[in-house]
Amino acid sequence: RFMCSQLPNEVLKSISIIDSPGILSGEKQRISRGYDFCQVLQWFAERVDRIILLFDAHKLDISDEFSEAIKSFRGQDDKIRVVLNKADQVDTQQLMRVYGALMWSLGKVIDTPEVLRVYIGSFWAHPLRNTDNRRLFEAEAQDLFKDIQSLPQKAAVRKLNDLIKRARLAKVHAYIISYLKKEMPSVFGKENKKKELINKLPEIYIQLQREHHISAGDFPEVKKMQEQLENCDFTKFHSLKPKLIEAVDNMLANKIASLMNLIRQEESNMPTEMVHGGAFDGTMAGPFGHGYGEGAKEGADEEEWVVAKDKPAYDEIFYTLSPINGKISGISAKKEMVTSKLPNSVLGKIWKLADCDGDGMLDDEEFALAKHLIKIKLDGYELPGTLPSHLVPPSHRKPFQTAE
Predict the structure, then answer these.
(1) At 171, is the secondary structure helix, strand, or coil?
(2) Which of 205, 228, 268, 389 is deepest in the core (most CB within 10 A)?
(3) Neighbour-count burial of 69, counting CB atoms closer than 10 A to its CB (0-12 exposed, 13-18 middle, 19+ buried)
(4) Domains of the chain (ranges plus CATH)?
(5) What is the pTM of this model?
(6) What is the pLDDT of residues 83-135, one digit of tens each?
(7) Which helix (H) or strand (E) segment is 138 a member of?
(8) Containing H/E element for 54?
């Protein structure tokens, strides 16, 4: 009764999306479905590159089955990303509380020392109810898009990581099976001993961890392993073969490193693969591109120099710094620039961008540009790597060359 649709979409090839709205209480859902939903999710989770958990900011809850669904991703924690959707439904103060509550709830379900990456935004076509965090939502959306678009580049590494996981799991299984085989009696009491060993499986795990220095995370889930062992004949298990264990250890210690080098060489010689289609096409075009008209991009389409509107205020400061021949020295400029309390590394970059002629001094236009760049940084925007043409002071712009 399990139904699935196959769609020709590059994004859907590498992403499994688990949406929380509509998930009923576990027992009702299991009865209505007629199959084990968590096992289906586990099957998909082992084969995809990214798992996205969606939560609505205005109705944050984790049902019992959604909790079980998340737990079915055990061992795939590095693939999980979280989206706090419809965050425009709450104000900034409420959003902080919702984010904290979400992290606390996920901490009880996902047992991993790493902090999950949570993307905050409004990922639907409805108008924003609360526009105070528009810039945050746009930046988070771009980060999520970049993460998804880069998945093809990491596909080979993911497959190699899956190979490592399977090899370590096979090694652990060999230790478990050989131990159970060794503990079985040769003639009488086999069934009773089998039940005893199954019940003592958690203790056997601990013993094997100590003897062979194996991480607890490499062992299969106890409950699932006990269920599988119920249908097995322990007397037919194979004994441990040290040479095979040595081969696996050699592969993990030496051959994996050479494979990783081959992957890196192949990636460097091939064009960068990116996910295309849907929201990834056409989102950066025109005046609705990310960051268009903001920060260092402000004034890109205007004929007038964008710094000119604030230049009178900057000029008042400039002439208090005792300019000589229309310029102030680096020492004088530094005294004013450090009042912004920006790090010296940032101020050094601003100086390099503002000193257009590279003479170690600033004229009134260069000083105004420096103040404008400081304002851009204080407003939370990134500085450009090189000075955009629209920010170059008018007196420092090269005249157009005309053909004779």
Answers:
(1) helix
(2) 205
(3) buried
(4) 32-150 (3.40.50.300), 156-269 (1.10.268.20), 295-396 (1.10.238.10)
(5) 0.59
(6) 999 999 989 999 999 999 998 888 887 877 778 899 999 887 778 888 888 88
(7) helix 134-149
(8) strand 50-56
